[in-house]
Amino acid sequence: MGSVTATVAPPTNSNVTRSIRTFGAIARSGFRRYATYRQAAVAGVVTNTVFGFLRYYIFLAAAGAAGRVAGYDREQLATFVWVGQGLLAVIAIWGWTELADRIRTGEIAADLLRPVHPVTSYLATDVGRAGYAALSRLVPPVLIGLFLFDVYLPHRGATLPLFVLSVVLAVVICFGCRYLVNATAYWLQDVRGPLILWTLCSGVLAGLYFPLGFLPGWLEALLRYGTPFPSLLQIPLDVLVERQPAPVQLGLVGVQAGWAVVLLALCRLVQRRAELRLVVQGG
Amino acid sequence: MSVIEMSGLRKEFTVRVKAGRLRREKRTVTAVDGIDLRVERGEMLGYIGPNGAGKSTTLKMLTGVLMPSPGEARVCGLRPVAERTRLAMRIGVVFGQRSQLWWDLPLRDSFELLRHVYRVPAGEHGARLARCRGLLDLDEFLDTPVRQLSLGQRMRGELTAALLHGPEVLFLDEPTIGLDVVSKQAVRGFLAELGRAGDTTLVLTTHDLADIERLCHRLVVIDHGRVVHDGSIAALHSRYGSRRMVVAELDAALPRPPELPGAPLQRVEADGHRLVFALESATVAEVVAGLAGLATLRDIAIVEPDIEEVVARLYRMTAEAGGATVTGAP
Ligand SMILES: Nc1ncnc2c1ncn2[C@@H]1O[C@H](COP(=O)(O)OP(=O)(O)OP(=O)(O)O)[C@@H](O)[C@H]1O
Ligand SMILES: [Mg+2]
């Protein structure tokens, strides 16, 4: 029998590496799982491209004759739009209902029967999914932007690594939000309500429909620190187009890191609450 | 210490039922109604009961995916819900009704992923997989995505997946449901082999009693969430008076039904050409000798007591005796 003290002992080095290895294996399988849906990826790219043109010309109209709006020039707007179209798929902002479906059908039982915390294993799968999306869904719109438009390319050396970190955090934050929205299925028969609310809020407040710079400064700040939405798209894209000075951008990514930690903790809390009352259906 | 201990294990579900046009009433359904049971290491336990008896509910509580209402359960000394992740390392579970494999991945990749999830050393994992491949004939569909597998193929995959980490306890909820004869035999043979090794404890739920006959020495029958029988299959037969039968084929029908001491006549079939006697205190030889004096015997057959028969009788008896399990809540 494993003694109780074994569980409170500090994790040994090998324990950590084994956890990382498990995480990596689940992420790789997530990559492979999503890679089986090639047609879906193609359809997604086409849709994203069409809406990319739409958004670009609307933003351009907003910029008007001056060619500047809310601190973005034309080239920055082009980058904002075309990289943003790709990022939508990388963070998988909409359309993920796997967890809610599995809760509803009772398939969640299979996840609970594994020796890995469900939040951890779903996160790992999502990281793998995001990796596949980065190859299949991010690259095409970026290429379109590069070849067809004058896009803004970062000038500072630190921008690109910071952007990558910012995107990784955005993936984690978006995962956390989606997990929480899906987890309402533990309490509700029908999760369409929370899903619609999420779709609406994330679209408007993440900087997708318009860059949040269009809003008054105090409101943008309120959204940024008070909600996780700007961390999904606005912050990574601002980092890429170098809208703020480097130290400020570092701070923004720090805000993202804070949101990632808060959301993951919240996911675990909600999951624990849910398990106490969970009724696995069927059988 | 017992591998599995249940004391006063209960589960009540609260359901809302329509009562009138708008009103909805809360009702409590007692799915498991106070089960006390101990299972020792290496035991092969058949856990059966009629539909809705509470078998799956018990298994869900023992595997930690369902919180018991009151009552306690320990599996491998752990509390299933509170210590679920640790318990998961030590048990294997197959719910025949649903898949635990990854729908989009080939079986081979699922198994490889499980190796990492359960942190099994590669050598151990490989040895177990090789054994399962041999015994369950996995090779021809190892590279097929799970969603394309037939039910029987998938079930063999599920069993393998449940065993790759070398669990101490195996919970199987209807693992042979929907399988053809050959697949069933493969699964049974595989489990029998596992049982012979003697270090894995098995809890098996099934409606195919041949599974039980073939595999389990101990049989627990539950109904309305309560244990109604706990013992060997032989004990069940003797308790419910199932007897061996002698079926005699006669050349010609007898004018009146024969009376043999210790072997009451059960049925007369085929226009009196076939007589069926139950063996109570008489031996087969005595029945044959008694009949030979009365008629010309063409053929004689001895039928072992039928498990389906005795279990059906048990289910019917408990259904008549069993009270309603649905009670209105205040
Ligand atoms: N989620 C639930 N909500 C309400 N009642 C439930 C729920 N799950 C099971 N029950 C009830 O509990 C009882 C036991 O169900 P359970 O699934 O354990 O039966 P079982 O013995 O596995 O039956 P079967 O042989 O049909 O699989 C049934 O009366 C069922 O209606
Ligand atoms: Mg069942």
UniProtKB/TrEMBL annotation, chain A:
<keyword id="KW-0812">Transmembrane</keyword>
<feature type="transmembrane region" description="Helical">
    <location>
        <begin position="77"/>
        <end position="96"/>
    </location>
</feature>
<feature type="transmembrane region" description="Helical">
    <location>
        <begin position="246"/>
        <end position="267"/>
    </location>
</feature>
<feature type="transmembrane region" description="Helical">
    <location>
        <begin position="193"/>
        <end position="212"/>
    </location>
</feature>
<feature type="transmembrane region" description="Helical">
    <location>
        <begin position="138"/>
        <end position="154"/>
    </location>
</feature>
<feature type="transmembrane region" description="Helical">
    <location>
        <begin position="160"/>
        <end position="181"/>
    </location>
</feature>
<keyword id="KW-0472">Membrane</keyword>
<keyword id="KW-1133">Transmembrane helix</keyword>
<dbReference type="Pfam" id="PF06182">
    <property type="entry name" value="ABC2_membrane_6"/>
</dbReference>
<feature type="transmembrane region" description="Helical">
    <location>
        <begin position="40"/>
        <end position="65"/>
    </location>
</feature>
<protein>
    <recommendedName>
        <fullName>ABC-2 type transport system permease protein</fullName>
    </recommendedName>
</protein>
<dbReference type="InterPro" id="IPR010390">
    <property type="entry name" value="ABC-2_transporter-like"/>
</dbReference>
UniProtKB/TrEMBL annotation, chain B:
<dbReference type="InterPro" id="IPR027417">
    <property type="entry name" value="P-loop_NTPase"/>
</dbReference>
<keyword id="KW-0067">ATP-binding</keyword>
<feature type="domain" description="ABC transporter">
    <location>
        <begin position="17"/>
        <end position="249"/>
    </location>
</feature>
<dbReference type="InterPro" id="IPR003439">
    <property type="entry name" value="ABC_transporter-like_ATP-bd"/>
</dbReference>
<protein>
    <submittedName>
        <fullName>ATP-binding cassette domain-containing protein</fullName>
    </submittedName>
</protein>
<dbReference type="Pfam" id="PF00005">
    <property type="entry name" value="ABC_tran"/>
</dbReference>
<dbReference type="InterPro" id="IPR003593">
    <property type="entry name" value="AAA+_ATPase"/>
</dbReference>
<dbReference type="GO" id="GO:0005524">
    <property type="term" value="F:ATP binding"/>
</dbReference>
<keyword id="KW-0046">Antibiotic resistance</keyword>
<keyword id="KW-0547">Nucleotide-binding</keyword>
<dbReference type="InterPro" id="IPR050763">
    <property type="entry name" value="ABC_transporter_ATP-binding"/>
</dbReference>
<keyword id="KW-0813">Transport</keyword>
